[in-house]
Amino acid sequence: MLDSATVASVTGLAPSVGQEAKGSSGSGLAAIGHCLWGPPSTGVGVEITAFPETAFKAFFDGTPAMTPMTGVGLAAKGSSTTVSGIAHASLYVDFGTFGLLVAVNSKTATLEMAAALANAIK
Predict the structure, then answer these.
(1) CA 67, CA 91: separation in Å to the nearest integer?
(2) Which secondary-structure segment (H or E) carries 6?
(3) Could you point out which of 18, 23, 47, 105 has its C-alpha 20 to 30 Å from the C-alpha of 10?
């Protein structure tokens, strides 16, 4: 999906290889795939979670308060917040047959970083 070099070049982090994670994101959606780059205990790293299209579309359409992003998937929107000096940039991307959450968590995380990672997914 993503290699560590791409994650590092976009975010400035030095992550290890992505690791499959259990559970789902804080969105409340049931994930069909979930991967982390960086130890969850630090709160710093990248998270990518995939969702089935039907559930994702209902969630995506029901969250109008997010910032729209252009040039990513069919549609994308996200939000960012800072907690204890760590910025959390979360971007939801509709790819038409599935949806993704791309979350970047670091001192310098931005929605643009999340968008660049979403565009780099293979």
Answers:
(1) 9
(2) helix 4-11
(3) 23
111 contact partners, CB below 8 Å, separation of at least 6? 67, 69, 78, 79, 80, 89, 91
| Cα 100–chain centre separation | 7
CATH of the domain at 84: 3.40.1000
| Residue length of the chain | 122
- Classified as helix, coil or strand, 3 is coil
Q: How many domains does the chain have?
A: 1
Q: Which range marks the domain in which residue 66 is found? A: 4-120
pLDDT tens-place values along the chain, 122 residues long: 788 888 889 998 877 766 656 655 556 677 777 787 777 667 788 988 899 999 899 999 998 889 999 999 999 999 999 999 999 999 999 999 999 999 999 999 999 999 999 999 87
Residue 110 DSSP one-character state: -
pTM, whole model, 2 decimals?
Answer: 0.87
- The β-bridge partners of 28 are none
Q: DSSP 3-state assignment of 27? A: coil
As beta bridge partners, residue 104 has 46, 89
